[in-house]
Amino acid sequence: MGKGLAVFSAAVLAVACSGGAVAQQKLVVAGYGGSFEEIMRQHIFPPFAKQHGVELVYVAGNSTNTVARLQAQKSNQQIDVAIIDDGPMYQAIALGFCAPIQGLPADDLYKTARYKDDKAVAIGIVATGIMYNKKIFDERKWAPPKSWNDLKDPKYKQQLVVPPLNNTYGLHTLVQFARAAGGGEKNIDPGFKTVIEEINPNVLVYEPSPGKMTELFSSGQASIAVWGSGRVKAFADTGFPVGFVYPEEGAYALLSSVCPVAKPDANPLSQQFVQYLVSPEVQSRLASEYGYGPVNTKAEIKDDPRVPLPIGQRAADLIVIDWDTVNQHREEWNKRWTREVER
């Protein structure tokens, strides 16, 4: 653990985002890497840092990594604010890592954004669906995908990318194929069977890294993938000809969420930063820059014709999985996935 903490400390120093040389306080925020990190650094951190005279430090990692950091540091928490997907966030709350949020603008937030006892709050709605390379599809005269079952089509052999099971997008994929085969969260076996027998032959790689995912598409190695609407919009904003589909059976809801970390010497700015993230201004920015469906009813939003945002009826139709059941079994499913799917 000593080595892990040393690496963490080095990462903290390396990714410091200063609010000015005279700043006396530091606020350590853990969240996603890739394009999300860039948006946080460029657009979200600077106004808050300037207003409060605080040095904001960003520690990038996926949700599983952030929860693992919280566990490793539970006797001396270094993270002040944690941005985590909804499933791992329920785990973080159950483990006592999240403090109740104070001062939430309750009347302005959609009910789906609120967690029990305000131990966390969503900062954006993401749809898990299907991404595809429009250029390759046009050249090969392929129709855009429309169904989860399209991922089984042999023409995509070695061209499909699916995030692994410890990633929410991968989990949504497994649950969808379990449900489609008569199972579900309480009977996951049919999902494993479908993935192993019908999806696996098409998979180029089970890739968790956002940077690697875009590389695989940019190089032409991959032409279709399971991914989130926010990630796809950020990719489309680079000019890449990428499309996003809400499958006809339904896209899945992912709530990007945040909580102030519970610790004896908690910085009061942790609470203020969480409030800031759900403000109309930041919510509008996260929608325009990252493609999040906003959680604040007062946020001004404009839909994106390239990657339709999870707003309005699209947001209402998203499928929400049974996280209570999933989190009871996720560790054993992860081991089984590694043993049976990615072997």
UniProtKB/TrEMBL annotation:
<protein>
    <submittedName>
        <fullName>Branched-chain amino acid ABC transporter substrate-binding protein</fullName>
    </submittedName>
</protein>
<keyword id="KW-0732">Signal</keyword>
<dbReference type="GO" id="GO:0015888">
    <property type="term" value="P:thiamine transport"/>
</dbReference>
<dbReference type="GO" id="GO:0030975">
    <property type="term" value="F:thiamine binding"/>
</dbReference>
<feature type="signal peptide">
    <location>
        <begin position="1"/>
        <end position="23"/>
    </location>
</feature>
<dbReference type="InterPro" id="IPR006059">
    <property type="entry name" value="SBP"/>
</dbReference>
<dbReference type="GO" id="GO:0030288">
    <property type="term" value="C:outer membrane-bounded periplasmic space"/>
</dbReference>
<dbReference type="Pfam" id="PF13416">
    <property type="entry name" value="SBP_bac_8"/>
</dbReference>
<dbReference type="GO" id="GO:0030976">
    <property type="term" value="F:thiamine pyrophosphate binding"/>
</dbReference>
